[in-house]
Design brief:
By secondary structure, this protein is α+β, with helices and mostly antiparallel strands. It has one domain. 24% of the residues lie in helices and 37% in strands. It contains 2 helices and 5 strands; from the N terminus they run ββααβββ. The strands form 2 sheets. The protein has a 3-stranded antiparallel β-sheet with strand order 1-4-5, with no helix packed on it. Strand 4 and strand 5 form a beta hairpin. The longest helix is centred in the middle third of the chain and has 10 residues. The chain is elongated and about 55 Å long.
């Protein structure tokens, strides 16, 4: 087996519920969440057309790929 390292970008969207006394407090709480907290607490989705793989590295040098849209 060979380990392959992917350099990728994607646009992720999500929905999260936050309990707060006002919309202003809810937004403040949301903005204070770390990225990992926000992702873990959200229902996530991604459009397949937004996935881009820049390159794959197998440790012997970079294997350049085309801009793949999966």
């Amino acid at each position: 087996m060979v380990n392959y390292k992917f350099d990728w970008t994607d646009v992720v969207q999500g929905t999260i519920e936050i309990e707060a006394s006002s919309s202003k407090d809810a937004e403040r709480i949301f903005r204070e969440l770390s990225l990992s907290e926000r992702l873990n607490r959200s229902d996530l989705d991604s459009e397949k057309s937004t996935l881009k793989i820049r390159f794959v590295d197998v440790g012997l040098g970079d294997i350049q790929t085309e801009a793949l849209h999966l």
